[in-house]
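User: Just a sanity check before I run the rest of the batch. Below are the structure tokens for the first item. I only need the designed sequence back.
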């Protein structure tokens, strides 16, 4: 795998990751908590992308692994800010998957 392929893989994973992260995040969470979850999800998505593209042995290539992880992080943050948040799709997913307390369910 080349650096360009690593960045491309990272960008592809990162572009859809905010929609998956929105399933877990809750509207009532603080901005800091949401950011931590988004960054952790991007790192996990990057690890999965590296493993899927070259198996666990791919982690021996530090530069390519870092490029993929950073590509996922950059693409996820950018796609959220430029596409998913303005389109209201990510916030809508958050609202639909909000866990209700017993008092709210009544």
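Assistant: Here's the designed sequence for the first item:
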């Amino acid at each position: 795998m080349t650096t360009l392929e690593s960045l491309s893989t990272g960008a592809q994973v990162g572009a859809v990751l905010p929609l998956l992260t929105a399933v877990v995040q809750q509207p009532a969470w603080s901005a800091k908590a949401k950011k931590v979850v988004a960054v952790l999800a991007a790192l996990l998505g990057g690890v999965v992308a590296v493993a899927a593209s070259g198996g666990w042995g791919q982690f021996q290539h530090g530069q390519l692994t870092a490029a993929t992880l950073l590509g996922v992080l950059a693409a996820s943050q950018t796609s959220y800010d430029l596409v998913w948040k303005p389109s209201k799709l990510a916030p809508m997913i958050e609202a639909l998957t909000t866990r209700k307390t017993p008092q709210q369910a009544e």
